[in-house]
Amino acid sequence: MASAATSTAALLLLLLLFCSSFSFHVAAAKEKRVTYIVHMAKSRMPATFTEHGNWYDASLRSVSDSAKILYLYDTVAHGFSARLTPAEAQALESLDGVLCVLAEVRYELHTTRTPEFLGLDKSDGLVPQANTASDVVVGVLDTGVWPERKSFDDTGFGPVPAGWKGACEEGKDFKATSCNRKLIGARFFSKGYEASMGPIDESRESRSPRDIDGHGTHTSTTAAGSAVTDASLLGFATGTARGMSTRARVAAYKVCWAGGCFSSDILAAMDAAVDDGCHVLSLSLGGGMSDYYRDSVAIGAFNAMEKGVLVSCSAGNAGPTDSSLSNVAPWITTVGAGTLDRDFPAYVVLGNGKNYTGVSLYSGKPLPSTPLPIVYAGNASNSTSGNLCMPGTLIPEKVAGKIVLCDRGISPRVQKGYVVREAGGAGMVLANTDANGEELVADAHLLPASGVGEKAGDAIRAYLLSETSPTASVVFGGTKVGVRPSPVVAAFSSRGPNAVTPEILKPDLIAPGVNILAGWTGAVGPTGLSVDSRRVEFSIISGTSMSCPHVSGLAALLKGAHPDWSPAAIRSALMTTAYSAYPGGDGLLDVATGKAATPFDYGAGHVDPPRAMEPGLVYDLTADDYIDFLCALNYTSLQIAAVAKRTNYACDDKKTYAVSGLNYPSFAVAFATTSGNGGGAETVKHTRTLTNVGEPGTYKATVATSVTGGEVKVAVEPAELRFTKGGEKQSYTVSFSAPSLPSGSLGFGRLEWSDGKHVVASPIAFSWT
């Protein structure tokens, strides 16, 4: 009996263990899977494998018998992406040869007159007409492309460059013949998106390179569109529309879909674009700030840079909040947004005779010449958010036949107009709130409408709330050029300081990003709303998404003129020739405050292409310089390998690394603080090296600074640099000495080297933390 009892107990124990094990595996199977990007040390592949893909697959199968590889990466990254549970990802990260396992990140889009404003209409003679200009390829990672647009006309282009390895991928609405000698490549990347969001709804968007959104066509034609005469949006901004580099080729990489842009797709597209033969990559998207070894775009951009490819990214549309930047790695060119000298006025005339200037791109039937009643949306709704004109919130009986004053926020600006129209309203005044201040962004509204600033909105609201029978009219002023002051920094443009590495000043520079005319999709109207039946060749939109391709195209222009320049040299030329003041000497303004902007807003300043063609001197950088920078950040060997693909790389214990030693074209100087205003002086030293890309000459340094509540003493040694030949390098040291100031104190300045012909300028930002 005892023996039987023991056997029974043992059986029960085994059954319990089996059930526990089974329950564990069931729980693991039910654990939610997400996409992870797995970075591998390529050189550590075991000898038992002959192909890296087989090794990656075996590594994946060792932790999961059901996960499948989405993408293999082999150019700007080494590794793969797959859907894993957190437990599987953790197990995978412990395997030999695995550098890091990063969870997928969802990125968002940072959503004519410009060539004249930038001086490109006068600079054609500065750009060599050799074939090198048309050998440059700009890869645009975005929502795809509408290839039938005239901006992709290939008249006058020779054969596709011999080294081009790209493809024109087909879909049910996109043929290989959609590409030509201008648009030489088009690919789409959806595996990561579909793994996270489910299959693409092909009734709403195209599973092909075709652009159903409009954003990608706009950015690609801004960067390198061919010249198109008589271009306009519904009669606004009429003229010749052209990209920044009309002779460059375009390759479109569709990575953004209705539900966003996913990092596994973005990295795959960067991998393909560099391997295809692109010289410039333009990414008008972002996902906030994170350490470089955890940032897929930063990782891809590093390895693109090492292969000679410049990567230009938008700074983000989260301004004017401090430290709101995206894409801050020092090997990325980070672009903020400014305005043009062009506007589209729409005047709001009140019954009391007051007149307020707003903006609009409305082109339909105007309002009656006699004033109409005007009502505040908040008083014509049963909703607590009725002032925002959200769908279904307006009472038709209270708005019918009237102009409705709506507050900006939450829902798209153009959708508010549609809500007013559907409720029977005759027109709309869209008022900015404190979040947007006086920044005016024009829209192609579906009904007569004008967007006004916060002050005008407050005044109009006060009028209609104080009058028993308030009236108004909206008068449209068409297109106005020569607006002053311009440029000003856009309020939405994301700002520094750089929260990842405060000693690297970001953004790098600003470019036109407000009310930009460029090519558009044929799938939706200029509002992007499904109810908008209008179809246009060009549209006008705003964002750092628009400023980024300006710089991407200008980088292609410089690459065509100077094929031997590195990505760092090209960025340096654009930064050191940028301007931070108007012709009269006053500093660039910030529309968010109405006051002078700072380098935390505009970086080096506003891009100036004619001067960038001949910068005189440049600050050059190599991949090894950036690795020294990572050592200065105390990155581990694994973290460096994740970014730079240098397996087993170890920083030299005998070498002194300093972030201040990175040969960057700007200066961000961080001082320590003590409590109160006392304390002794602190000295911070930066070293830099300039390379002569012009004629022999002697350059002298001048420095100007401004600090509230204190003084920073700046010494440049040597203060004079003599260059006797092209390619020659000369180094200097800058010592910044300052007293301890309260935490949060700021100061700014500018260091300039000049030979009498060229001015090589660097912005300076001081902070006390």
From TrEMBL:
PROSITE patterns: SUBTILASE, SUBTILASE_SER. The active site is at residues 142, 215, 545. Keywords: Glycoprotein, Hydrolase, Protease, Secreted, Serine protease, Signal. It comes from the Eukaryota. It holds the Pfam family Inhibitor_I9. The lineage of its organism: Eukaryota, Viridiplantae, Streptophyta, Embryophyta, Tracheophyta. Residues 199-223 are annotated as: Disordered. GO terms for biological process: proteolysis; system development. It is found in: Secreted. It comes from Elaeis guineensis var. tenera. One of its GO terms (cellular component) is extracellular region. GO terms for molecular function: serine-type endopeptidase activity. This is Subtilisin-like protease SBT1.7. Residues 35-110 form the Inhibitor I9 domain. Belongs to the peptidase S8 family. The keyword Protease applies. Residues 662-765 form the Subtilisin-like protease fibronectin type-III domain. Residues 373-460 form the PA domain. Residues 1-29 form the signal peptide. InterPro entries: PA_domain, Peptidase_S8/S53_dom, Peptidase_S8/S53_dom_sf, Peptidase_S8_Ser-AS, Peptidase_S8_subtilisin-rel, Peptidases_S8_3, S8pro/Inhibitor_I9, S8pro/Inhibitor_I9_sf. PANTHER family: PROPROTEIN CONVERTASE SUBTILISIN/KEXIN. Its main location: secreted. Residues 134-605 form the Peptidase S8/S53 domain. Residues 201-216 have a biased composition (Basic and acidic residues).
